[in-house]
Amino acid sequence: MIYQDSKTLLEVRGLRATVNGIEILKSFDLNVKSGEVHAIMGPNGSGKSTFAKVLAGHPAYEVTGGEVLFQGKNLFDLKPEERARAGVFLGFQYPIEIPGVANSQFLRLAYNTVQVERGKEELDPLEFDDFVREKMKLLEMNPDFLDRSVNEGFSGGEKKRNEILQMALLEPKLAILDETDSGLDIDALRVVAGGVNQLANKDNAVVLVTHYQRLLNYIVPDYVHVMEFGRVIKTGGKELALELETRGYDWVSAEYKAGGVKSAGTTA
Amino acid sequence: MTVVATNSYLASLLAGRPQTAPSPLAWFNDLRAHAVDRVGALTVPTTHDEEWRFTDISPLTRIPFQPAYNAAQVDPEDLERFALPEAGARLTFVDGVYVPQLSFNNVGIEVENIADGLNKHGVAIQAHLGRHAAFDANAFAALNTAFLNDGALILVPRNMTVAAPLHLLFMATQKEAASYPRCLVVAESGSAITLVEDFVALQDGAYFTNAVTEIAIADNASVNHVRVQREGAQAFHIANCAVSLAHTSRYHSVSVAFGARISRYNLNVLQSAEGAECAIDGLALINDSQLADTHTCIDHAKPHGTSRQQHKCIVDGAARAVFNGKIMVRQGAQQTNSSQSSRNLLLTAKSRVDTKPQLEIFADDVKCAHGATVGQLDADEVFYLKSRGLSEAAARNLLTYAFGAEIIDRIPVASLKHHLEQTVLDHTNRLA
Questions:
Q1: Which of A265, B73, B303, B393 could cross-link with A29 by S-S, CB 3.0 to 4.6 Å?
Q2: pTM over 0.90
Q3: Structural domains of chain A, ranges and CATH numbers in brackets
Q4: Tell me, what's the ipTM?
Q5: Do A170 and B394 touch (CB under 8 A)?
Q6: How far apart are the CA of B391 and the nearest CA of chain A, in angstroms?
């Protein structure tokens, strides 16, 4: 939701990034204020997921230009773990399976690391167990998932619920959810989206990276950005997503190439 | 030149044999005499021997280890550190010498030292002792047999299930001492036990453990075998274990190697009748300039046998791990189902592993799968943990721990499992 006097959380200016020497992000701009929900849409290969991974600090992606300020500070001065502790959260498109690490152990380690950073009390295993079970109710997750190895053998939907559970535990300032809707059936989508909606408030922001308008029926965005050619080529309100659903992406690219609309990605 | 030198080394070890009176049992004297002959004919293996290609044992031959004839005093607190609360019986050997005061037996079956057992169970022992662990071509097994005087004896009567683990504790307290632990387990048909062999050190100096274990498992019997090698950092540990499986019997083992400067474990499992089953898991966690070598051979001699094996190595510092896993499927051993996996984690540029799965299949209707991987930690797993706030070090430690914990988790003795998990955790927390 857009609030009048909310603070800017994220400013991305002219961001360029490469993977394996190929430039994927060419001049990416985005402004996100607290309280807002942004959707980044676009065809395959437009650079949506690259943007998400660059923000989280994935080592395979190299930043070659531009800047990103998170709460006014240079995000690239921080290591991936420092970004996470500062309140940047990436919901993975393909959550990683970690055999041998119990989910409960992993969740508690992550939670306590962030708690310490915020000057708060760590929870011991028993306290954490009570705490995490409450959070799991939000996502209608079976507590059995605590005893299993992280994401190992989880279905697509279970993995995504586990991602949002981590978001619920870590309470990030900025959550970037990379194709959280992919691989979800309609019931799971409703539950996961409901979880995200409950976690969103006026002090944090959510950036949804998605192919499909479907997710946006459940999590209503304040801004919709269309990405192509490694940059934002059009920005609009939630109605833009509906238009994309019916008309596809081609008309936006055509419009952009014709130089008709040159919306910078900035929204304020 | 080398041959002479290594021969003389074996002779120097042999010269330390205690002057004991001959046994009243002729077969026992004959067994030892035969072993003495074999030691005389064999040499210390070198890296020119195929079976010792990657393991240079020559540092052993620089020290003339001699047996400790008397057990040193062991502080009760030291014993307590290694005691298993679940154990139904414990036999404690200090520098190879049986210590009755540190041993107990509450399980109502024969768990005693071989020297005492020979008087009562000579016939049963004769049928198995020295019959499974072949020493004709194995210098270390021959040496152990030449020193045969005492050891651990476990006789499990027919259809007897002992739930509480039987603990064999081998403690090293004296520098430059050689010990020759010997263990014989005979599980009669339909019986079931859990055996824990634990090699521990109360000192940091060099010493030599040369162990032989024989396990005979009769029809439909079951043995769980946990083997923990946590010798001192300068120790030489060489062990041979031979297991014989009868009709539809089961052998499950978890062996972990944490200690010793150089360790070598040979495990030979013979499925001598139809429908036998074995599951063999191993973990070597080593650092600095340690070398841990595991050679296993699973011999599917009869049809309908199954075997599953997983061996893992975590190699840190400039350490070196060796794994050679032979699976033999003999002619006629149809419907054998065997799988083997060797997974290795190298934590530094100087760490090294030599792994060799070795399948020899002479039957045509069998299922045999094997695989080996050598690698570093998975970069995506590390990143995933870091993206949740864990430091690089914490992420790496957790993943390394998880890699090892998968094996430790299979130890069916809770206190030992937790203790060893903590050992792995302490080790991985040091990595940073």
A1: A265
A2: no
A3: 8-257 (3.40.50.300)
A4: 0.94
A5: no
A6: 6
